[in-house]
């Protein structure tokens, strides 16, 4: 993994790494299924004049799940977009310090999202609310992915902080 010009050594595959791989595969499967569902929807609409209305609902739900589930895996592979016009001109030690600071701020933000996401999921579940869609799925199913995904992001950022701190301590 490339962290600001610092190569992270290959880690052993932990249970968490396997979970990240699994969520990435789930996200890829959802992308593929969304493509199939929307093609079927268009085909049914224009050939038989009978669109499959559930495909729009499922595709919308999948878009949320894809984004949340793949974020931690993308962070692990350092695939997020970064604008480093000024950052790249700093000394490596300063870059590491800024990476650590950024990761700490992100971790605090993720923790806040997790806490409120859990509270909202519990509230929506207790109120037995349903989404305003033709399929009417329970809202908690749509919301529960947020604290789960952000928990995975938090864990990944804590791992990143640990690695960056090790790099800073070694003087790399």
- Cα gyration radius (Å): 20 Å
Total number of strands: 2
SS-derived structural category: mainly alpha
- Number of helical segments? 5
Mean pLDDT: 88
Gap between N and C termini:
15 Å
Overall tally of domains: 1
- Order of H and E elements: EEHHHHH
| Percentage of residues in strands | under 5%
> Which spans have pLDDT < 50 for at least 5 consecutive residues?
none
Give a quick account of the main beta sheet: strands, pairing sense, barrel closure: 2 strands, antiparallel
Question: Approximately how much helix is present in the residues?
Answer: over 70%
Q: Can you list the strand order of the major beta sheet?
A: 1-2
In summary, what is this structure?
The protein is an all-alpha fold.
Search tags:
172 residues, mainly alpha, 2 strands
Descriptive notes:
By secondary structure, this protein is mainly α. It has one domain (14-170). Helices cover 72% and strands 2% of the residues. It is built from five helices and two strands. The chain has helices spanning 15-48, 54-76, 92-127, 139-143, 145-170; strands spanning 2-3, 6-7. Strands 1-2 form a two-stranded antiparallel sheet. A hairpin with a 2-residue loop joins strand 1 and strand 2 (6-7). Helix 2 runs parallel beside helix 5 and helix 3 runs antiparallel to helix 5 (145-170). The protein is elongated. The relative contact order is 0.15.
């Amino acid at each position: 993994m490339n962290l600001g010009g610092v190569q992270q050594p290959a880690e052993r595959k932990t249970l968490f790494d396997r979970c990240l791989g699994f969520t990435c595969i789930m996200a890829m499967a959802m992308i593929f299924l969304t493509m199939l569902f929307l093609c079927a929807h268009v085909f049914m609409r224009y050939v038989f004049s009978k669109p499959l209305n559930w495909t729009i609902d499922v595709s919308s739900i999948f878009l949320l799940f894809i984004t949340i589930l793949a974020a931690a895996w993308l962070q692990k592979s350092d695939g997020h977009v970064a604008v480093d016009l000024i950052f790249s001109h700093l000394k490596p030690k300063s870059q590491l310090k800024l990476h650590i600071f950024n990761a700490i701020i992100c971790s605090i933000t993720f923790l806040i999202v997790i806490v409120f996401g859990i509270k909202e999921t519990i509230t929506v579940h207790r109120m037995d609310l349903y989404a305003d869609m033709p399929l009417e799925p329970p809202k908690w199913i749509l919301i529960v992915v947020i604290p789960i995904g952000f928990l995975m992001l938090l864990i990944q950022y804590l791992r990143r902080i640990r690695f960056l701190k090790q790099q800073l301590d070694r003087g790399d």
